[in-house]
Amino acid sequence: MKVYLSVDIEGVACVTTLKQEPGDYERARKWMTAEANAAIEAAYESGATEVVVADSHGSMRNLLPDELHEDALLVQGSPRPLTMMEGLDGSFSAAFLIGYHSMSGTANGVMAHTYTGMVYALRLNGIPLGESGFNAAIAGHFGVPVALVSGDDTVDAEVGALLPWTERVVTKWAISAWSARNLTPKASQRRIREGAARALRRLPEMKPFTLEQPIRFEVELAPPYLSQIGADIPGVERIGGRTLACTGADMLEIVRIWRLILNAGQGRI
Ligand SMILES: [Zn+2]
Q: Is the peptide bond before 79 cis (omega within 30 degrees of 0)?
């Protein structure tokens, strides 16, 4: 049994900011690594033969390799074709999303956003999705179910509505975008360890999140220049001042187009 982890940072317990006091980020990446380790330990104790961990925040070089479970394989750095799900394929039995956050626009969600601060909304086949849902659809392409999600109570609600069978661990309760009532890091790690073990016991109940193909992708972008630049990509049309749309054969094609839109926008040419 192979288990895949995609690890973000905003949903980790006691992470409520990434850039205020000196040391905030360094502490956050230490707790991020410890929460990943809790899930990796439980996966190996539950019979996993291989655990692949994708560092999936920002630069994608946050997890501390020296502190990471020594038997995990670490996917780090970018660019990479499957972004937050790089390294996943159909040989895995389960995917875990650790340290995740709710979608852009979620009231009070701790650091709620969708990929960048420039995305208002993202939809696949008309379904509004955050990073958890979009990445679950990538896993679904390979027939892999998302078995565990950890993060604040707002991502818990988001995932519960979309993938109700998923095992979920609440690491903190959101008060505002930069405030939460948190579990301590150790308590959060313990709950993730227990949740990961439960998720793998309940694996037969888990379902891959699959979308009818071809897949319609729509994204609403905050700055008008982004929708203007994105519309230059063949197959992408601008259907509103800030909205781009396209249809892809499958999730692999959708991810390629989505990365093109994001990467094109950063150049601002
Ligand atoms: Zn992140």
A: yes
Domain with CATH 3.40.50.10780 in the chain: 2-114+131-205
Q: What percent of the chain has pLDDT over 70?
A: 99
pLDDT of 21: 75
CB 82 within 8 A of CB 138: yes
Rounded to whole angstroms, what are the CA distances from 76 to 40, 42, 134?
A: 16, 22, 20
Q: 114 C-alpha vs ligand 1 centroid, how far in Å?
A: 9
Write down the pLDDT at residue 161.
98
113 given a catalytic annotation: yes
pLDDT (average), residues 168-177: 98
| Helices assigned H by DSSP within 51-146 | 131-141
**Residue 18 C-alpha to ligand 1 middle, in angstroms?**
10
Q: How far is the CA of 193 from the centre of ligand 1 (A)?
A: 21
Residue 57 Cα to ligand 1 middle (Å): 4
pLDDT number for residue 248: 98
Q: Measured over all CA atoms, what is the biggest interatomic distance in the chain, rounded to whole angstroms? A: 51
Domain 2-114+131-205, CATH among 3.40.50.10780, 3.40.50.12780, 3.50.50.60, 3.40.50.1010? 3.40.50.10780
Amino acid identity, residue 236? V
Q: Which of 57, 101, 113, 141 is catalytic?
A: 113
Task: Mark the residues whose beta carbon lies below 5 A from ion ligand 1.
Answer: 8, 10, 57
Any idea which residue has 């330990």 for tokens? 41
Distance 115 CA to ligand 1 centre (A): 7
